[in-house]
Amino acid sequence: MQITLGPNPFFWPKHKLIDFYQAMAKQPLDRIYLGETVCSKRREMRTQDWIDLAMLMKEQGKQVVLSTLTLLEAASELKTLSRLCQQNEFLVEANDMGAVQLLSSGHKPFVSGPAINIYNGRSLRKLQSLGLRRWVMPVELAAGGLHNTLAQAQAISDLALPETEVFAYGKLPLAYAARCFTARHRNLAKDDCGFCCIDYPQGIEISSQDGTELFIMNGIQTLSAKTYDLIGELAKMQQLGVTAVRISPTQLDMADTIERFSKAIAGESVANSNIPLTDVTGACNGYWFGKPGMDQVST
How far apart are CA 156 and CA 47, in angstroms? Predict the structure, then answer.
């Protein structure tokens, strides 16, 4: 089973982002996803910068995938998407169906990101016929749903299944909107936001009226406040045929998290939760068990 590093959902200064990935290149990661998936206004890294960084990671022995925006709203964003889909050096993670269409029409293999709604075997086989080689399971799908999807796909065709990747650690990507919540928090218009997301490298926590941490605002994206942690479910994933687990970037204890997943995959005993003490929101794993996502189910 591989360990992958998903695309960074937050807006960090370019030099900090480069330093982060330089450090990640030394970690036991099999695949690294690079690219802006949330907002095209985050221009610290241009398209060519991402490609240059991908080349650097490749030279250091990492498989690299370039990730696309999840919500496209402008012609300029489509132009950037087209450039990513037209390059031939790296596999692309399609995070919306526009990217799927461009890659399929170019007869290029691709990865589908967690925002692509694959909930059954028919959808999986259809996208596979368009060039899908690996799919990242939607984060709200349970283990039982994954089993049913793969079983249905196998019943439809004898063709080998695409690789299956599961989001296993990090803040859950829950929703995307046309409005920018971070700009609204600062009483700014979206088109004149001043790139204020860069002031919140871990997003902005949102609590309920009773003080329960619920969400994180991250520009147009809503993340879970709690950290999704499926390290205790790796054996189950292997039984289901999962080929890779995804860890989502954060500024907290990434090396330790990656090491623990590596040890767990190797069969070594590790504690189920690795949520840093500085992350007071705690852990969750509910979706995997068919429960509310913010629940923590004992295993």
Answer: 39
